[in-house]
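job 3f2a | input accepted
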Amino acid sequence: MSNVTQILSQIENGDPQAANRLLSLVYEELRRLAARKMANEPVGLTLDATALVHEAYLRLVGGEQQQWDNRGHFFAAAAEAMRRILIDNARQRQSIKRGGKLERQELQESDAAISGGDYENLLALDDALTKLTVDEPELARLVELRYFAGLTVDQAARTLGISPRTAKRHWSYARAWLRREMDRG
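job 3f2a | predicted structure (185 res):
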C-alpha cells in the first residue's frame, strides 16, 4: 500500500494530523496539474494554480468525510474538484449580471486547450459532460482525468483500472460524443 493510500486510510479513521501529511505528499503533483489547467487562463484572475490546488484540497479533506480506495481514486476526486471550481469560476464570470452572453462552441481537437477567457466553451463542455455522465460514467471520468487533471491517456487508464488501448478508444468516442452534443446546444 502506498504512503498516500495509507494516509487516506488514516484520514478515514479520524487521524487529525493525516491531512497535513497528505498535503505534503501530494501538493507538488496537484500543483503541476493545476498549473497545466491555469496556463491558458487570462493573466490577473483571482484564481491561480495555487488557489485552485488549495480550494480543491479543502473540498477533498475539509467538511464531510470522504472515502478513497487508493491514490488513483484520490487524484480522480481531485480532478473532479478542480473541474467544479473552474466551472463555478467560469459561470460567475459569464453570468448575465456581468454581461456574459453564453454561446456554445465545439470542443477542439486538442486534448485540453481552452484559450484564455474561453468560458463559454468550458461551460458548454461541462453541460455536455454532465449529460455523458448519465449514460457513460466511465467515459465521463476519463474526460475529467484527461481534460481537468491533465493526465495522459496512459495515466488516466491506470487511474481507472483499464487498458491504455481501451482508454484511447473511449477517449476518441467521448471526444466525438461531446463535440456532437456541444454542436446541438
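job 3f2a | Residues 3-184 form one domain.
job 3f2a | closed
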